[in-house]
Predict the structure.
Amino acid sequence: AQTVTQSQPEMSVQEAETVTLSCTYDTSESDYYLFWYKQPPSRQMILVIRQEAYKQQNATENRFSVNFQKAAKSFSLKISDSQLGDAAMYFCAYRSGPGAGNNRKLIWGLGTSLAVNP
Amino acid sequence: DTAVSQTPKYLVTQMGNDKSIKCEQNLGHDTMYWYKQDSKKFLKIMFSYNNKELIINETVPNRFSPKSPDKAHLNLHINSLELGDSAVYFCASSQGMRQGGNTIYFGEGSWLTVV
C-alpha cells in the first residue's frame, strides 16, 4: 500500500523569504501523480501544484515549485517570496496512475502548518 | 464561476436530525467524491461515484447515504446525526479514468456541527 509522510507538522517563514516543505512517499508503482494542496483557515482545499511521475522536469506554478526526486521518493514544495496569504496547512498527496483502476484514491499526508511572519 | 459547489457551507443541527449536503460540479467531470475531514484535519474518503455508479464505498455508517441523480451532482444524506459526525465534508470531482483524469478538485467544504 502507498503511504505519504510529511515530517514537519509546523513550519514558519518570514515574509518574502523562501521555505521548503518536505514530503516523502512509498510506492511500488511506476505510474502515479503527486500533488500539493493548500488549506487556509477557511478550510477550502486548493490545488497548488501537481507532478506526473513520468515527467523528469519539476513542476512550477508561479512562486511554487517542486523538487521531485523519483528514486528517493521525495516530493518537496518550495515557496518563494512568501506572502502572508500563503499561511495555511499544506497537504502532500499521492494518486496511482489510470492503470490502477477507477477506484484509485488520493493518499494524504498529515499536513504541514505553515505560518508566515510579517 | 465555482467549479465544485456545495451547499450549505455551514450547518448546525441537533443530534438525531436528518440532513443533506448538496454538491454540483460544472467541470464536465464524470467522477465525484465525498471526503470527511475531522478536527485533527485528517482527510478520509467516504464515497466515489463514476457516471452515477458507486465505485468507492469506504467503511462509513449506513446512516450516510450518497445519491447521484446525474454525473454533475452528488448529494450526501445523513440520518440520525451524532456528535461524532461533526466535521467538514468536502465534495470533489475529477475526470474519469478513461479520460486520464488524475487531479481531484475540491469544493469549499461544508462545516457540519452536531449539538
Remarks:
- The two ends of chain A are 41 Å apart (CA to CA).
- The mean pLDDT of chain A is 93.
- The interface with chain B takes residues 33, 35, 37, 39, 42-47, 50, 52, 89, 91, 95, 97-98, 101-106, 108, 110-111 of chain A (CB under 8 Å).
